[in-house]
Fold this sequence. Notes:
five-stranded mixed sheet; binds 5-phosphoarabinonic acid; single chain; 46% helix; 17 helices; five-stranded parallel sheet; 441 residues; alpha/beta
Amino acid sequence: MSLVIDYKNVLGFINESDIEALSESACTANKLLHSKKGLGRDFLGWVSLPEDVLEETSRIKKVASEIRENAEVLVVIGIGGSYLGARAVIESFSQAFEVPKKGSPQVIYAGHNMSGAYHKELIEYLNDKDFYINVISKSGTTTEPAIAFRLLKEYAESRYGETTNNRIIATTDKKQGALNTLAKENNYRTFIIPDNVGGRFSLFSAVGLLPIACAGIDIIALLNGALQMAKETESEFYDKNPAMLYAIIRNALYNKGFTNEIMVNYIPRMSYISEWWKQLYGESEGKENKGIFPASVNFSTDLHSLGQYIQEGHRNIFETVINVDKENKDIVMKVSSSDLDGLNYLSGMNMHDINKSALKATVLAHVDGGTPNIIIDVDKICESTIGEMIYFFEKACGISGYMLGVNPFDQPGVEAYKNNMFAILGKKGYEKLSKELESRL
Length: 441
Ligand code: PA5
């Protein structure tokens, strides 16, 4: 197992008996995910997705290699679960300073915000580059990606004329939605998002795998890591099942008033793992006036901003720290003859070891300040460990949501802003709400 949960730093805040007390509820939750008898049972396709998707991987790889050959840039259009998973994995493997080129296209994102400046600059950026578009929307009706797609499709047509449609891949529902209609009408190549897989649990479908493969990441190794974790998390014993253990600890802390969880990461290129995780847990658990609020920090950067609050602010926070043992690249501190900066005591050390010392020091300081710390030890960043980690968080989220007593697979609260926005923008059918909102604007 390359992912291990170290929970010694929560034991001053909860004890082993609190953990034991929740083991039955976690076990029941895990069984419900497998028997498909719990809330949201129609959206449990993700549990076996890493295996079920295997037959589709050769087509995904084929399309990806065509894109790699012909594009300097792949624009992924999507929002929420339709882009965060791909971005989390791709950025975990990307270089900090990369120049896009054919054979190894840069993956960039659109339709995850409604900034006119962002999308205008994106089109300007594409001006001298060959690109493909992967537009992803399960419902096929989400406003943000729909707007971005209309803009980028128009731009692509101005660049590629009749051959534009070969450069657009749509990933969507098999029957419904405007995107499905557009794809059929224009003969786009399509990938289907299974009916029983919700957006934020769709990373191991073509939603995540096509962009990930385009970035040159080995999707089979990624899926093998997920499969390994799927096997491990079948166990009904929390000491053998890391997803159960994590779900139990966070619920035990929540029951003691620790209502905010911060995902802590020390490796900049992994920051989108936290963004993906926030969406997964926020949309799955935050309902019926319940749920742990998921936040994230990048240390040591944020030790110089949010560190103060975590150390001494309102005591309702716990942290989950990703501790990566070995970095893929590193740099050694050399001796300086003058030592004017006083850093010679670090000479001979790898920078990652200094980073890990910061991690150890911070865990101890925050625990002393009253912030419990769960540490997730990961051996290294590779396809297999990232696949394991993603599946681990998905499984723990399902278990944790059931333990909390909510349906982790719906997101009814997301509709409220959309309805108001449609009313404000004057969309047909929203006239009554528009009138109601008028006096409040
Ligand atoms: O997890 C979810 O279901 C959501 O975050 C969706 O992924 C997001 O709202 C985008 O929806 P769609 O793929 O239908 O455009």
